[in-house]
Amino acid sequence: MSLLRLDTVQKSFGAVTVADQLSYDVAQGEALGVIGPNGAGKTSMFNLITGTLSPNSGQITFDGQDITTHSSARRCRAGVARSFQVPQPFSGMTVFENAMIAATQAAGLHGAQAERFCLEVLDQTELLPKANTLAGSLTLLERKRLELTRALCAKPRLLLLDEIAGGLTEAECSSLVQTIKDIHASGVTIIWIEHVVHALLAVVDRLIVIDFGKKIAEGEPHAIMASPQVQEIYLGIDVDG
Ligand SMILES: Nc1ncnc2c1ncn2[C@@H]1O[C@H](COP(=O)(O)OP(=O)(O)OP(=O)(O)O)[C@@H](O)[C@H]1O
Prior knowledge:
This is ABC transporter ATP-binding protein. The chain is an alpha/beta fold. It has two domains: 1-41 and 48-79 and 164-241, Rossmann fold; 89-155, no CATH class. Helix content is 37%, strand content 26%. Strands 6-7-8-3-9-10 form a six-stranded mixed β-sheet, with helices on both faces. The structure holds adenosine-5'-triphosphate. Adenosine-5'-triphosphate is lined by residues 13, 16, 18, 36, 38-44.
C-alpha cells in the first residue's frame, strides 16, 4: 500500500524549476533513496512534502488523504517528520529539552509519558549519555543524531532524511547507517536524500534520480547507479569518452 504519492507535482521559482511533473509512490515500510546533482531540487521536494513550499500544480497524497494544501503542522501531526541538511537544534537547550519540544509540540505527548518516550528515542539514537548536554556543544555526529532524535520524537510514519551522512568519518557514517537501519526495521517509512552513496545503498530498497526537478531514473539501487544515464548526469562521467 502506498503511504506517500506525488502526482505530477510542479514547482518553479521564476526560471528555476525545482519540481517538473514529479510523480512517484512510496510504499508503507519502504526505504527510498534520492540522488541527483547539487541544485536538482531534492531539498525543495522535501519542502513540498512537508508543506513549507506549495506546488504550482499537482497533488500530494499521504495515507490516502490529499494533503496538498495542508499546513506543515498538520502534516507533522499526521506523521511526516524530517531532518535538516544543516542541523537546526535549539543550541541553548539540552539534548533532552530538544527532544521534549518535539514530543510535546509535534507528537502531542505530555508530562511523564513524554519524558519516558524521549528517553526511549534517545536510547535508540545513542544520545542517552548526552541527554543533559547543551545541544550547541555537541560534535557533528551527535548533532546529526539529535536531528534524528527530534524527528523521531514527532512519532513519524514517514521520516525524511536530508543529507544526514555528509561530513562524517567512515566509522561515524557506519554507526549512523546502523541507527537508520534500526529505525527502518522498526517500521518507519524513509525517504533519504544523500550524496554519500555507499551509505544510502546500505539502507534503501529503491532509488530515484532527480535532475532539474525531473525524475530521470527509478529502480533497484545498484542497477540505477550502474546505468550510463546516471553515470553521465549524476557523476559527470562521459560514457562516450
Ligand atoms: N525559496 C527559493 N527561492 C528561489 N530559489 C530557490 C528557493 N529554494 C531553492 N531555490 C533554488 O532551487 C534550486 C534547487 O534547490 P534545492 O535546494 O532544492 O536543490 P538540492 O537538489 O537539494 O541541492 P543540494 O544537493 O545542493 O542540496 C537551486 O537552484 C536553488 O537555488
